[in-house]
C-alpha cells in the first residue's frame, strides 16, 4: 500500500488466497461479510456476530444517542431500569449501559439461545459484570 510515495507494509491475518475464497463464498452464498469474519464494527465497539444473530445496523447507533440525550436531561431516567428486548449481539444493551454509568442495570433478553450466547460473550468482552447487564431468556 503506497501513500504519497511513502511505502507502508500492511500485514494480513490471512493470506490472499484465503481472503479470495472468503469473498467468493460471500458472493456465492449471498452471506453478509460480517458473518464470514465473525465481527461487526459498531460505534466504538467490535462486536462478535454469527449466523442466527442479526448484525447491528448503523441506524441503531441513533438509539444510543437518543438515550444519552434523554438521560442527560433527566436523572430519574438514568436511575431507572432499562431493557433491550430482542438483544441479538447485545449492542444496544452494552451501548446504553456504558452511557448510564456505574451501578446501573440493563436487562438484555432474547428468545434465541444463539443470540443470548453471542450477547453474553460481547458483554464479557467489554468488561461488564453479569449484574450490570443481565442476560435472560
Automatic annotation (TrEMBL):
CDD domains: AdoMet_MTases (cd02440). It holds the Pfam family PrmA. It comes from the Eukaryota. InterPro entries: RF_glutamine_MTase_cyano, SAM-dependent_MTases_sf. PANTHER family: PTHR47441, RELEASE FACTOR GLUTAMINE METHYLTRANSFERASE. This is Release factor glutamine methyltransferase. It comes from Quercus lobata. The lineage of its organism: Eukaryota, Viridiplantae, Streptophyta, Embryophyta, Tracheophyta.
Amino acid at each position: 500500500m503506497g501513500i504519497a510515495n511513502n511505502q507502508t507494509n500492511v500485514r494480513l491475518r490471512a493470506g490472499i488466497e484465503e481472503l479470495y475464497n472468503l469473498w467468493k463464498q460471500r458472493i456465492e452464498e449471498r452471506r453478509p461479510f460480517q458473518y464470514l469474519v465473525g465481527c461487526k464494527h459498531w460505534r466504538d465497539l467490535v462486536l462478535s456476530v454469527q449466523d442466527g444473530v442479526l448484525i447491528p445496523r448503523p441506524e441503531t447507533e441513533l438509539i444510543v444517542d437518543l438515550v444519552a440525550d434523554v438521560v442527560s436531561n433527566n436523572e430519574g431516567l438514568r436511575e431507572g431500569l432499562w431493557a433491550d428486548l430482542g438483544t441479538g449481539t447485545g449492542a444496544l444493551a452494552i451501548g446504553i449501559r456504558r452511557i448510564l454509568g456505574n451501578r446501573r442495570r440493563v436487562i438484555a433478553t432474547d428468545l434465541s439461545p444463539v443470540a443470548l450466547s453471542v450477547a453474553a460473550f460481547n458483554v464479557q468482552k467489554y468488561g461488564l459484570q453479569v449484574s450490570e447487564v443481565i442476560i435472560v431468556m
